[in-house]
């Protein structure tokens, strides 16, 4: 019972731990251009020969905004608001999501809401040896802020490397694909190229992640379960050794107290009853499920009639010795009367008892019986789930054995079949 409570507690703690890791162990980092090591500025296409003009607007609220007077002159006119990491690149692998409070307005070709492109530019000396912006690997996502309710949240895994950059920067296989371990610049760029007045307001950017990565946390939980399992197995081993010691002591006591059949030297009915009382007193409900197996020698009267009672007695003695030699010490064996025997198997469900009976039946087929006899038996099996079921199980096993005889003998039949 204690183990069940401990297992339930471990399950509850595991569930709470997973929930806490998902909802309570959250780290957040704000990108607003005002934090330590963050530099906010704007750029436009004038550096590429264009005519667009970007202007950084900052009011008393601290909200960053960019006004863009987009003009023809460059093939793809644009204005861009950048937040640059001045005190070291930012490792985004510690985060899983990005949350954006953005507003964008301006003319579009089809009158649809204005779109923006959000870029996460990553540094790696393999493709940006000088750290120039043009060589930083851009990961982008496009959306229309006014078409979404603020804030808009994206998984970082949704950001894909810009195809135009990948075509212009052939990379070796290890450097291909998304790479956000050293983000140097976060930027928001006008999404269209329609001339006119554009406005982008960036209220806040928030990176969200776990203080302990879910993979690491789950690995720790797995380790906890493994340690608990090893502890349980150690405890179980110690308990089993204790049970074995008690079983040996109990078996010796049973051998002294039980009444034996003088011919076969196994317990008789009274001896079986005494042995079962001791067993149930020592183990109580731990004995269940318990199986009862009735065994009856086939055509035993014919053996006595044709070969005499002495040979019949030899058959019964060898049969009892064979059963005892092929049963665990905790199983009880008794001569029920005449050529009929009973096996009581504690802590054994009916399916397992049927398998044991089938194995014993095959042992009989390989046994050298007196005067080269071929000796077979009919077997009936029933299961008791509690002490209150014992008498019923005895009757059902006896009836199953008679069904085996009527069905042709030399077979095992379960009462539940």
Automatic annotation (TrEMBL):
Entry-linked PROSITE patterns: GGDEF
Keyword Transferase among record annotations: yes
GO MF annotations, alphabetized: diguanylate cyclase activity
UniProt keyword Flavoprotein present: no
EC number(s) recorded for this UniProt protein: 2.7.7.65
Keywords: Nucleotidyltransferase, Transferase
Catalytic activity: 2 GTP = 3',3'-c-di-GMP + 2 diphosphate
Pfam families: GGDEF (PF00990)
Primary enzyme class: transferase
Domain GGDEF per the UniProt entry, residue ranges: 288-417
Superkingdom to which the source organism belongs: Bacteria
NCBIfam families xrefs: GGDEF (TIGR00254)
Name this protein carries in UniProt: diguanylate cyclase
